[in-house]
Amino acid sequence: MVKCVSSFLLFSLLSVQAMSAENHIDLHQPKDFVDITTVAPDVQVDMRYFSSHNFIGRPIKGYNAPVCLLTRPAANAVKQVADRL
């Protein structure tokens, strides 16, 4: 009985650690990339892969924040289009 309880507690502890590591938000921004909202603040970003509102019904691993990172030229191009709308 003690062995069973010890195993359960160890499993619970490892599960909690795994969940907290998975939920860690790493906002590392690759060099030469910018957040589109810093270049074109009027652009509305809806990062579906970050939420459960996507084709698989849950957040997709690797999308740690609802941020749209683009190269500077791509962000400038989006801004030019947004300014015309």
From TrEMBL:
GO terms for molecular function: D-Ala-D-Ala dipeptidase activity; metal ion binding; metallopeptidase activity. One of its GO terms (biological process) is proteolysis. The keyword Signal applies. SUPFAM superfamilies: Hedgehog/DD-peptidase. It comes from the Bacteria. Keywords: Cell wall biogenesis/degradation, Dipeptidase, Hydrolase, Metal-binding, Metalloprotease, Protease, Signal, Zinc. InterPro entries: A_A_dipeptidase, Zn_M74/Hedgehog-like. It catalyses: D-alanyl-D-alanine + H2O = 2 D-alanine. Residues 1-20 form the signal peptide. This is M15 family metallopeptidase. It comes from Salmonella enterica (Salmonella choleraesuis). The lineage of its organism: Bacteria, Pseudomonadati, Pseudomonadota, Gammaproteobacteria, Enterobacterales.
